[in-house]
Amino acid sequence: MKPVIALVGRPNVGKSTLFNQLTRSRDALVADYAGLTRDRQYGAAHHEGRDWLVIDTGGLTGERGGIEALMQDQAWLAMEEADLVAFLVDGRAGLTAADEQIAAELRRAGKPVLLVVNKTDGVDEHEVQAEFWALGMGEPEYIAASHGRGIGGLWERLEAMLPPELTEEPAEEPEDQGITVALVGRPNVGKSTLTNRLLGESRVLAFDEPGTTRDSIKIPFERDGKPYTLIDTAGVRRKSRVGEAIEKFSIVKTLQAIDAANVVILVLDAHTGITEQDQHLLGFINERGRALVIAVNKWDGLESDVRERVSTEIERKLGFINYAEIHRISALHGTGVGHLFESVDQAYEAAMRSISTNALTRTLSAAVEQHQPPLIHGRRIRLRYAHQGGSNPPIIVIHGKQTKRLPGHYHRYLESYFRREHDLMGTPIRIEFRTDSNPYEGKIDRRTPLQKVKQKKAEARRRSKGREPRKG
Predict the structure, then answer these.
(1) Rounded Cα–Cα distance for residues 95 and 79 (Å)
(2) Which residue stretches belong to region Disordered (predicted)?
(3) Considering 116, 201, 284, 340, which has the largest number of Cβ atoms within 10 A of its Cβ?
(4) Is residue 143 part of a domain?
(5) Do 314 and 442 lie in a common domain?
(6) Residue 190 shares a structural domain with residue 309
């Protein structure tokens, strides 16, 4: 069983920086900005043969209203899950009243706590030692997380504090994260509410304020005995409205989450309809080749005439995404949410499907027989055979003659035909064409002029023999 460490402390003491050091990743956003982390962020760490689970949390401020209260609830939930708590304080700022308040709460929680004094680069440890000893939490561990100094000693202290049941030799655990599903969309469309509804718990912050989620939160879970990893992402707004540097980083993390996902659930707001930004996001998802499910949220609060108008708008504006299942849901009340994962499973299975060369070539022959490729300069484009070139998304490679001249409408016809015949719903398809090489290309014609003339005459005689006689 993996030991679980929760990193807690005031805002801007370096919890996310330490999280990245321990997990040897860049999963947590880091900036000189108080209150950047809001949700629980989980990460895997490995040290000297042992696997750990590290939880990054939002800063504890003592505020009991608004979003700050929800952030602190998330931090205390992380502490309940943890076997050890690393309590971070700022060595440069010194001991504060907020630190003393957090220390008192931690003592009441009854968890093993290691006091970690961060930002000690350029600070005399002996000067701050007496100050933090006053917290009564034992010998502090001094580190500089931004430079990686003291991380080895921190691991040793954490190992020494492990409960007895976790000090035994860890058993090998299968690392099956299942299908990775990313929830993306504009700010305030209900992604975090939908995440909590799918998980059946208040796992991430859901607050009526655009931009509540700032980082991409990965959450492993099981549904009907199948493993999944859900990624709740920050909302993506128009570039002209992206002001803070933090928001720019959040958008990058969202786009990275799309790349990391097997299936993307795009969440739309039924009240605002399909916006230009929604279409940009759809274009990016399609370009990256991700399997897709569309969830139109806040559907239950619409009048019947508005529903009809929104449905018409969806059909008109999302015509270029003809492979994705569309669900009309209410994340707040749970209406329609249960069917989302049916489409997720279907889309994933289609994206990862392996199809034999024989089956693809038969499908190509049937498509060509039903609708021939066009003539180019009097010559018919020949499509000979097809094979699979990859999955997620499925790539179908078609070999033939003059394939570079194949028009776009025939390309789309083939894509629709392959999708229908092999039930590839929920995923884009990539069709690539390969033009067969000319076996005589690059070879030198070594015939004499007389030989060329004789060959032309012979070809003319053969053509004349094949002509029908004139009717007199």
Answers:
(1) 22
(2) 439-472
(3) 116
(4) yes
(5) no
(6) yes
Residue-wise burial string across 447-463, b where 16 or more C-beta atoms lie within 10 A, e elsewhere: eeeeeeeeeeeeeeeee
Residues at the annotated binding site for GTP?
A: 9-16, 56-60, 118-121, 185-192, 232-236, 297-300
pLDDT at position 247 is: 38
Which residues does the annotation place in the binding site? 9-16, 56-60, 118-121, 185-192, 232-236, 297-300
pLDDT digits (tens, 9 = 90+) for 332-346: 888 888 899 899 999
Phi, psi (rounded to 5 degrees) for 146: -65, -25
Burial readout 346-367 (b: 16 or more C-beta within 10 A, e: otherwise): bbbbbbeeebeeeebbebbeeb
Segment 257-298, tens digit of pLDDT: 788 889 999 999 888 888 887 888 888 888 888 999 999 998
**What's the chain's average pLDDT?**
79
Say yes or no to pLDDT of 366 above 50. yes
For residue 116, the domain's CATH number is 3.40.50.300
Structural domain that includes position 361: 354-466
Q: Which residues contact 407 (CB under 8 A, 6 or more apart)?
A: 374
Residue 321 CB-density burial (10 A; 0-12 exposed, 13-18 middle, 19+ buried): middle
pLDDT-derived band at 44 (thresholds 50, 70, 90) equals confident
Instruction: Please tell me the distance from the alpha carbon of residue 79 to that of residue 73, in angstroms, as a whole number.
Output: 10
Distance (Å, whole) CA 472 – CA 469: 9
Spatial distance between the Cα atoms of 416 and 422, rounded to a whole number of angstroms: 10
Which pLDDT score, from 0 to 100, does residue 348 have? Answer: 94
DSSP 110: T
Residue 119, token pair as written in the block = 């930002």
Identity of the amino acid at 61: T
Asked if residues 63 and 11 have their Cβ atoms less than 8 Å apart, the reply is: no
Of the candidates 332, 351, 370, which is a domain's last residue? 351
The label of the residue with tokens 């001991």 reads 95
Edge to edge, what strands does the sheet with 382-390 contain? 382-390, 395-401, 430-435
Cα 84 to Cα 11, 116, 157, distances in angstroms: 20, 12, 11
Between 245 and 383, the more confident residue is: 383
Cβ neighbours around 64 below 10 Å, total: 8
**Whole-angstrom distance, CA of residue 229 vs CA of residue 430:** 26
